Amino acid sequence: MNAECGMRNAEPSPGIKYGLLAEYDTAAAIMHAAETIRDAGFRRWDVFTPFPIHGMNDAMGLKNSKVGWFSFIGGATGYTLGMLMIWYMNAHDYALTVGGKPLFSPHFAFPPSYELTILLGSFGAIFGMLFLNRLPRLHHPLLKHRRFARATHDGFFLVIECTDAKYSETETRTLLEATGSRHIEVIEE
Amino acid sequence: MSAVISANSIPLPDPPAELVRQPLVLNQRPLGWISDRVAAVTEGPAPLWWKVSFGISFLVMLMCFSMIGYLISTGVGVWGNRHPVMWAWDIVNFVWWIGIGHAGTLISAILFLLRQRWRTSINRAAEAMTIFAVMCAMIFPLIHVGRVWFAWWLFPIPNANSVWPQFRSPLMWDVFAVSTYFTVSTLFWYVGLLPDLATMRDRAKTKLRKILYGLFALGWTGSNRHWNNYEKAYLILAGLSTPLVLSVHSIVSLDFSVSQLPGWHTTIFPPYFVAGAIFSGFGMVLTLLIPLRAVCKLEEVITMRHIDLMCKVTLATGSIVGYAYGMEFFIAWYSGNPYERFCFVNRAFGPYWWAYWAMISCNVLVPQLFWFKKIKRNLVIVFIISILVNIGMWFERFVIIATSLHRDFMPSNWGYYKPTFVDVCTYMGTFGLFFTCFLLFLRFVPMIAMSEVKGITPQADPHHPLGGAKGGPR
Q1: Between chains, do B237 and A65 touch, taking CB under 8 Å as contact?
Q2: Which chain A residues touch B178 with a CB distance below 8 Å?
Q3: Four-residue CA torsion sign, B198, B204, B206, B209
Q4: What is the per-residue pLDDT across B100-137, written as a single tens digit (0 to 9) for each?
Q5: Which of B120, B168, B397, B441 has its CA 20 to 30 A from that of B43?
Q6: Backbone torsions φ then ψ of B203, nearest 5 degrees
Q7: Last residue of a domain, one of A117, A132, A147
Q8: What is the rounded radius of gyration, in angstroms, for the C-alpha atoms of chain A?
């Protein structure tokens, strides 16, 4: 925890500090700024854009998303569940003879199991994504900020949280100014 | 200094005019313009066209529900289904509606995997169309079971008789395919909506809108750490929806082809049904979007290039369907099976000849007009053709279902199917349900995926001069 963090801001608006917000004009500008911040070794920071910018994951130094694992586990569960369910229902619990066909065969059990693979695989992808993003959440300090509303419209923002070990209000501000931000301000909790 | 030529300022000649691609958003509109224009459809008082069409749709929807009420309270005898045609408009409408839905998933999933950037302008509306079409489709199998209060026996839920569903039947596969399709399409659509719901939340003027859009946006901020997981999830969903959409109509076709009936018992059915589904779905997308782009003033986002590309997909899938019709006839002759042969000759020249030739002219002949650029540029003609495609595809399902059933192996089993007013009004009524849902969608949810359209503009590309890249115009 940084020493400056959690302290009350000076006048005119006293509140608990959250971090520094820098605004950029173009997709290229914010990508270069992200490269600078990544190379400066910050950890608790993020970029907010109205659409995913191609190449930003590398510029921020983010690793490949882990959503795929959730989806894989979901899909494997779905397939197994489907096969087991059909075997249990039609061959084990209530053996049902239809047209002299075998009580269980992976062939007729395949279509429902295939659909369950897709169903649970999709659940894995969606709920895995929400879990990794820690969503849904009802409150976020940035969402109170009037200027930040443009992050879902046409604004490009970079936020460094004051909990970052390297955060210093003056030095970080200078660094952000050097990346060409046209507006920098302190955000409150 | 002008003599110095660096690596990124070598003067290159401009490409010839015919090689320059039409932009996907015309007039180099700024990013903010996109959300302003798209969100405007949902903001302010409802326009007159919306109120009138909503009122009509709502009344037609009530007609649908009253017909269903009459059917349930009286029995399936109110329909025209009689021996030997025990599957008729109910299943025709089911297959037709579910086929309509397939274009939405093709646009949202398959075109996404194929990196077709033009899909972004139409995917939201097409996916909404999918969801509402599947809702209309699901009504029919539920009510055609006769004793609707036992419809839950379709699902593997323990019941008092201790008997489980019979999974060797393709009808059971259908239950899983259609319910999975509905669930996954809805979730895929919702995931695509998240960033746009956040846009709606951030531009909301009233407290109520702010709270409601805020709740549904789940606290989306546009964080790139979130986008990283989001894009992966979206890609996986597209990858899962692609085999899903292909399997759904394949399984619907297995409802027929697994049986032994001539006219139904063919291996060509799964690919033929999937092509037909996408064909009819694109017909419906064109029917919906041609008027909408005009009344919602979105001509710069849903451009003539989009219309042109959709016409091309319609032409391609229509030709596949035409090939399948020809191949069915060839195999009926080549199989040497007299029942098969009779069935197909009877389709074209028997009592239902009018349905067969309506199908051929609407599905095979009319879409061939899309070979001509002049036709594709004339929106009135494209609109009429799109409606003919929908009519033709309805007749296709009618031809497959009713004509195969009405004259089976023994002449003593022959009959002629006629629908009753309940059949007609229930089918017409589902349009009311569809358009009621679709019009509500238009008023409350951005009908174009704003964040995705922004993402394909040159301003979004950090390596493009409009996106802020340095190094001259190239």
Answers
A1: no
A2: none
A3: negative
A4: 999 888 889 999 999 999 999 999 999 999 999 999 99
A5: B120
A6: -105, 5
A7: A132
A8: 25
